[in-house]
Design brief:
Number of helices: 1
Radius of gyration: 18 Å
Length: 168
């Protein structure tokens, strides 16, 4: 009986965890709050979630997406910041670059809607930007949040030493 209770508790915990990280879309700074400019002051901006199954059989959402999160206590302006993707089959620079715009509020989210594999699933919440050319493979590749829209070389594996990478 004790094992059944523990197993049931684990199942409920796993079910509830599916609802913890939902894509959000908050792009405006609070009234009167001056956003920090992009680049080096984008410290605190992270790739919070990527969803690569958009539109596939059994998919929750119709579109792929990347959700950014601002961990800092100040708004961040996205001018000059880009999201870059390089599939593992590519050996050069990133093959897709999406220039971002707007602001991410302090402790706020920014939703980038990408391509779709089909028509299965729900519509995403309103995205901050739509990038139909962002077609992230579901099994591999590298996403990088960068300080420039110029496609970077070496954006795969450990990117901690790649100049211009904010998060990957």
């Amino acid at each position: 009986m004790r094992n059944r209770f523990a197993g049931g508790f684990l199942a409920v915990a796993m079910l509830l965890s599916a609802f913890v990280v939902a894509p959000g879309a908050v792009a405006q700074a609070d009234a009167g709050e001056q956003p920090a400019s992009g680049g080096a002051s984008a410290t605190g901006l992270v790739i919070n979630e990527s969803y690569t199954s958009g539109g596939s059989t059994g998919a929750k959402y119709k579109n792929k997406f990347v959700e950014l999160y601002n961990t800092s206590d100040h708004a961040i302006a996205l001018d000059g910041i880009a999201l870059q993707y390089r599939p593992s089959s590519s050996t050069g620079a990133a093959t897709t670059t999406v220039s971002l715009s707007g602001n991410v509020a302090a402790k706020g989210y920014y939703l980038v809607a990408g391509a779709s594999n089909g028509s299965v699933g729900d519509d995403l919440p309103t995205a901050d930007i739509t990038a139909s050319k962002l077609n992230i493979k579901g099994t591999d590749g590298t996403l990088a949040l960068t300080q420039s829209g110029t496609s970077l070389e070496g954006v795969s594996g450990d990117t901690s030493q790649v100049s211009g990478v904010i998060d990957a």
